[in-house]
Amino acid sequence: DVKVTQSSRYLVKRTGEKVFLECVQDMDHENMFWYRQDPGLGLRLIYFSYDVKMKEKGDIPEGYSVSREKKERFSLILESASTNQTSMYLCASSLGGKRTGNTIYFGEGSWLTVV
Amino acid sequence: KNEVEQSPQNLTAQEGEFITINCSYSVGISALHWLQQHPGGGIVSLFMLSSGKKKHGRLIATINIQEKHSSLHITASHPRDSAVYICAAYSNTGNQFYFGTGTSLTVIP
């Protein structure tokens, strides 16, 4: 079974803390994505990576950074957490390039509350 | 501007009803995905379409490439179908998914 694993399911952090969200996939996928999901806004892309050490900003990168040192692992970092970053964070992966039919696989999500 | 628009946003149905969820997109795509999200967060892929129609059990997905429109149908709906259904377009320039905001379906016994 293909798998995208997010390290933490539920986190509560204080304003100003540095937060790491880790994601690992076991499918040798080139593409990995971090989204946040908020009621009424759907999935919004924070960052994506199409290869090791490569990253591209998504629609809402402000306040976030990412790291992809190994193909299977993509980390999302909140340098200084703020209450408006309280959300559900979803990691996903897919095969890369312009191939037709790249199924996207999601992790279970990480619920982050910043107090 | 949303590249992918879904309707309706919310849908309540009686068990056994036929359900249709619609998706329109404005970007060039190589594939259109229908996803399902149950309460608790996990998202699973139901269908991936580049043309025509696909069927899996009681679920049917269709796409009209010329009209840039796709539909997800559920026949003989059941309470366990209650979930959020999300349409996602995979860009034909590669590497990007565009998501609709989802349709929240509740099927009442």
Count helical runs of chain A.
Answer: 0
CA-atom Rg of chain A in angstroms:
13 Å
Q: Based on DSSP secondary structure assignment, what is the total number of beta strands of chain B? A: 11
Structure annotation, total helices of chain B: 0
Question: How does this structure look, described?
Answer:
Helix content of chain A is 0%, strand content 52%. Chain A is mainly β and 115 residues long. In chain A, the strands form 2 sheets. In chain A, strands 2, 4, 5, 6, 9, 10 and 11 form a 7-stranded mixed sheet that branches. A 4-stranded antiparallel sheet of chain A has the order 1-3-8-7, with no helix packed on it. The radius of gyration of chain A is 13 Å and the shape is globular. Chain A starts with a strand and ends with a strand. In chain A, 36% of the residues are buried. The model of chain A has no long low-confidence stretch (mean pLDDT 91). In chain B, strands 2, 4, 5, 9, 10 and 11 form a 6-stranded mixed sheet that branches. Chain B has a 5-stranded antiparallel sheet with strand order 1-3-8-7-6, with no helix packed on it. The N and C termini of chain B lie far apart (37 Å). Chain B has 109 residues and is mainly β. Chain B is globular and about 45 Å long. The mean pLDDT of chain B is 92. The A-B interface holds A 31, 33, 35, 40-43, 45, 48, 50, 56, 88, 90, 92, 94, 96-109, 111 and B 30-31, 33, 35, 40-45, 48, 50, 86, 88, 90, 92-97, 99-102.
Can you describe this structure in just a few lines?
The complex is a heterodimer of chains A (115) and B (109). With 115 residues, chain A is mainly β. Chain A is built from no helices and 11 strands.
Which secondary structure elements does this structure contain, and how are they paired or packed?
The complex is a heterodimer of chains A (115) and B (109).
Chain A: E1 4-6, E2 10-13, E3 19-25, E4 31-38, E5 42-49, E6 56-57, E7 64-70, E8 73-78, E9 87-94, E10 105-106, E11 110-114
Parallel strand pairs in A: 2-11
Antiparallel strand pairs in A: 1-3, 3-8, 4-5, 4-9, 5-6, 7-8, 9-10, 9-11
Chain B: E1 4-7, E2 10-14, E3 19-25, E4 29-37, E5 43-49, E6 52-56, E7 59-64, E8 69-74, E9 83-91, E10 97-99, E11 103-108
Parallel strand pairs in B: 2-11
Antiparallel strand pairs in B: 1-3, 3-8, 4-5, 4-9, 6-7, 7-8, 9-10, 9-11
